[in-house]
Amino acid sequence: MGGGGIVLQDGRISDICAISTSNYPRKVMTVSINGKGGSSGSMVVDYEGNIIGVNHAGSDIANYVIPAEFVLEDLHYLELGQLPPKKDIGLTFGHIREGEAKKFYNYAPEEGVIQLGTHTDQLPGAQSRLLRVTKCLPGSSGEQIFEPGDIITHVENVAVGQDLFKYYHRLNTHDGDTIQITFFRNGERRTETVPLFDLNEASCHEMIVFGKAIFARANPIISLLFSIESHAYLLFLW
Amino acid sequence: MNTHALSSVNTNYFSESKEDGSLDIGAIYEKATHHVLKIDVNETLSAYGSEANSTASGFWLGGNSRLIVTNAHVAAPSQISRMYAEDVHGRKFKVKLVYSNPLIDLAYLQPEEDETIQQPQSFFTFSTHPQRNSEVFMIGNNGGGRHRFARWTYQ
Known about the structure:
The complex is a heterodimer.
Chain A: E1 7-20, E2 26-31, E3 43-46, E4 51-58, E5 63-67, H1 68-78, E6 87-88, E7 91-97, H2 98-105, H3 116-122, E8 129-136, E9 151-155, E10 158-159, H4 164-172, E11 178-185, E12 188-195, E13 197-198, E14 204-210, E15 213-218, H5 220-225, E16 233-237
Chain B: E1 3-4, H1 25-33, E2 36-44, E3 51-60, E4 68-70, H2 72-75, E5 80-86, E6 92-101, E7 106-111, E8 126-127, E9 135-140, E10 148-149
Antiparallel strand pairs in B: 1-8, 2-3, 2-5, 3-4, 4-7, 5-6, 6-7
């Protein structure tokens, strides 16, 4: 195999439900593996021979792995000859521990609306964390409703806990142009109906072809992915 | 443990199971050698045609899918010009992008129509309930060397 070769490295999963912080926040697993250059796209396999994820990025001490549930969701659509949906409302997330949420954000699970225990039972070792909004992308539907610091608890009345996959899965499988999001702000529980947009339909707009170059104006999410200003022009070469 | 098979094609690759249900590491590696691919990407860097090459990993899903999984940041840069996959036997073939999702960083490739490469008929099952602190293996084309373990030597 060229100058490389198949390498098998072993490690342990240190977090099954982390959020990577590179550009767009993604749900990842953290694995204590020293991933060298060229390992992007490697399969990650458990001791029973099942694929648990795909290597995404890493350092000398740990790697981020995309959980297999994302692959299975894509394959569900691809095997039907359909594009997997990429529905969004324009929020980015980080984790916050329940204790911090109570202390700093007046989060009130004693109201009984949060079924954290149920969620952590399903994901042993995932720890008591919640999804906290870190950014509302300019121009998105979420910007009109949410603020950084809001704690998202339910999508269409289904608890999402700390799991970004559950959040996106609910968005992607929801029929309709709007979706109900339940969240906490300043100790108050709120439910809002938020317009959904599909990135498959609105990746770029205002395209200009110039010789072998294409200029296209980026939408807010594309801007975040490429770390450029919202609505800046992207240059594609072909 | 939830597992998901991609197709009904069966395989006896994992006949070396231990008593506790786990598998022999050599069996895992041996099976992976049929699936793991090196992905070579040529990118056009300017409108004047200058190029750069990069190398990463991917793997056949196997069964009936004819799909290769890799990362979106590997296979879907905006200025991509050519993309090849190479298996452990040194068979190199041209691949095309079927779908990529940069939000999740996953991409799916297929051999070009005129490629006659055979994909493995075996397939891996998927687990969506990994356990924290459990031991896992990353298998790919990283760092050079041929057919080796990072911690052990496998001949």
